[in-house]
């Protein structure tokens, strides 16, 4: 998805993991994914650079659809569809 499409996307669940270092954002995402239904979108907020590679790899392993990320004001917004 393009950055504009991601910005317009409505997230069903937002996980704010900006205060944690690797692997904190990934662990927070793993915990939160159970809170959404199949087809819903989860957004992960992180300031850890490693999250940009960890989340797509995990999403692929779990057969979730990684939609993309936005770099914004020193943080990353990553989107995936369950």
TrEMBL record:
- Keyword Glycoprotein present in the record's keywords: the answer is no
Q: Which residues form the UPF0033 domain?
A: 15-39
- Identify the InterPro entries for this entry: TusA-like, TusA-like_sf
Q: Which UniProt keywords apply?
A: Transferase
Q: Name one GO molecular function term.
A: transferase activity
Endpoints of the signal sequence: none
For this protein, the record's Pfam families field holds: TusA (PF01206)
Q: Which Gene3D superfamilies match?
A: TusA-like domain
Q: Which SUPFAM superfamilies match?
A: SirA-like
Similarity field: Belongs to the sulfur carrier protein TusA family.
Protein's recorded name: TusA-related sulfurtransferase
Tell me the lineage of the source organism: Bacteria, Pseudomonadati, Bacteroidota, Bacteroidia, Bacteroidales
């Amino acid at each position: 998805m393009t950055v504009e499409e991601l910005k317009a996307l409505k997230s069903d669940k937002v996980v704010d993991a900006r205060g944690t270092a690797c692997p904190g954002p990934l662990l927070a995402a793993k915990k939160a994914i159970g809170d959404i239904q199949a087809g819903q979108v989860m957004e992960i907020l992180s300031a850890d650079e490693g999250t940009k590679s960890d989340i797509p790899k995990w999403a692929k392993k779990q057969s979730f659809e990684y939609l993309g990320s936005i770099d914004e004001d020193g943080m990353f917004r990553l989107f995936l569809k369950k």
